Amino acid sequence: MTAVRLQSLLNSLPEGWGRVLQPAGDPAALAITGVAEDSRRVQPGTLFLARRGRGTDGHRYIPAAIAAGAGAVAGELRPDELPAPFPAGLPYLQVADGRTAFALLSAAFFDFPSRQMAIVGVTGTDGKTTTSTFVHSILAAAGMRTGLITTISALIGDAALDTGFHVTTPEAFDLQGYLAQMRAAGCTAAVVETTSHGLDQARVAYVDYDVAVVTNVTHEHLDWHGSWENYMAAKARLFDALSTSVPKPGVPKTAVLNRTDRSYAWLKDKPADQVMTYAIDGQAATCTASAIVVDRHGTRFLLHAPDGTVAVQLHLLGRYNVQNALAAACAGRALGARLPAIAAGLGAVERVKGRMEWVYAGEFDLVVDFAHTPNALKETLELGHELVPPGGRVIPVFGSAGLRDVAKRRLMGEIAGQLADFSVVTAEDPRTEDVAAIMGAIAEGLEAHGRQAGRDFICVADRATAIARAVALARPGDLVVTCGKAHEQSMCYGSTETPWDEFAAAQAALAARGLAAAEPARA
Asked: What are residue 395's DSSP bridge partners?
């Protein structure tokens, strides 16, 4: 087990970060084996950090952490303010802000791995995982050994490590650990999918970013942020980090902006060594696209950059993936990739799990997609209409998460009311909310566009049954697309994460019709 001497850990931290209020023993000899803010993750020698959160106060769990073998404790309170007496035999460190301190201690434990690599951060409402995957592939095609952390997994060399059920950006200690493994594996660059929650909760504090990329910023997570402006401000922290991150020789701090998105006006004046833009609608930008052709075999287009034009063939579908590809091209250019490597890298991405991924192609089609925001659902349904033949219907299976942004439920229904031919409304992580109430809010949006229950949509609470109903309804030429779960490995009911496999549910629905999963042939 890796261990760091407590004194060495303290020496690596900036002056004024906190105070050691209760020294115990020789800090030069005390071995710290990890940093945790969840008492259930404490092992012998762990430094446990307690902080006050929205739902609970971590200081209450200090006794549990000590019982599990914590070697030291940090907290936002003084020892005499703690809910339970603190033993004299342990070091106690008081910190001003627990979130930032946890990120700082985590980075220091691994000796600040992001300072030895070029770091690309990708944020936005939709397209983060795909854009991050594109950037990783471009840098690999350019000859750079590159790590990748996305909502799906962490890629370190040839190893893919699970990053969790419902967290896109890992907690700070895990994130810094992944970066340290990448450094040890000889990576010279890393791509980190960076969420607004990760930024707002300081999970990515002390990640030294060099390139900041935004896809788009639309309606999402307003349950946490309260308003679009607060949500945008959280996203903007990635770009603010460019001016505070440690500089690296030959790596300019670069902002990559979507010239056609609402976020552009907010971000265009953020300090950076250089700004690159992208657009697909004819606006002037660093990277643009023309001659876009989308069919069921992929997407092809011409990529225009200041140093030339190159033809790109994507395996992935949709105009929105052209936008993601352009964002990735800008990020690649920022780190020295040339057009041939950019085209090769984009073309090498054969799939991104759960992103318009075919399960069946026959008399009708069945696709799994992650679309879980109003904008993503809109883009998926519009793409669906490009793919079906005349007379074919687009049939989405979708829901909206419980204990999350309430306003988007009706919005999702309204979009389906405008663009879907028939909708199957179902559960998507209801948590402690009533599934029927969530589906009812979606149904209101459908009905606002003249859709009638039974004729134009049905509500089926059990997701596996809902997928089976959609598949049973499919006629020749139809496209059934299951939205909102995709790669996720669990469904949250109450406070319990129950194992879930969207692909297995889709395959079971096919089997009920006597069909076997089959993807369309590649062009």
From this structure: 480
- This prediction's pTM: 0.89
What is the rounded CA–CA span in Å between residue 217 and residue 230?
A: 11
Sign of CA dihedral 299, 300, 304, 310: positive
CA 85/CA 190 separation, integer angstroms: 43
User: What average pLDDT does range 406-413 have in this prediction?
Assistant: 92
- Mean pLDDT throughout 198-210? 91
Name all domains of the chain by residue range, CATH numbers in brackets: 4-108 (3.40.1390.10), 113-348 (3.40.1190.10), 357-512 (3.90.190.20)
Provide the residue count of the chain: 523
CA-nearest of 379, 188, 414, 223 to 294 is 379
How many Cα atoms occupy the beta-carbon half-sphere of 329 within 13 Å?
35
Among 128, 327, 119, CA closest to 218 = 128
- DSSP states along 494-519: TTEEEE--HHHHHHHHHHHTT---BP
Residue 328 predicted with pLDDT over 70: yes
Contacts of 196 (CB under 8 A, 6+ apart): 123, 221, 224, 225, 231, 234, 235
Residue 213: both structure tokens together: 């990329």
Report residue 20's pLDDT band, with 50, 70 and 90 as the boundaries: confident
Which pLDDT belongs to residue 521? 47
Whose structure tokens read 């399960």?
359
